[in-house]
Amino acid sequence: MFRYIAQDGEKGFDIYRFPFELVDSNMFFIPSGETGIVLDPNENKELLKAFEEYGTKHIVIVLTHEHYDHTTGVNWLQSKIESTLFCHQACAEAISTEKGNDPKTLGYILTLRDAVDGGHRRDDYMAIAKHYSLRADQSFSHEYELIVGDIKLKCIPAPGHSPGSALYFLGDKSVFTGDSLIQHTPTIVHLPGSDRTVFKQKTKPYLQSLDKEMMVYPGHGDPFKLKDAEFLW
Question: What does the alpha-carbon distance between residue 149 and residue 46 come to, in Å, rounded to a whole number?
Answer without folding.
Answer: 22
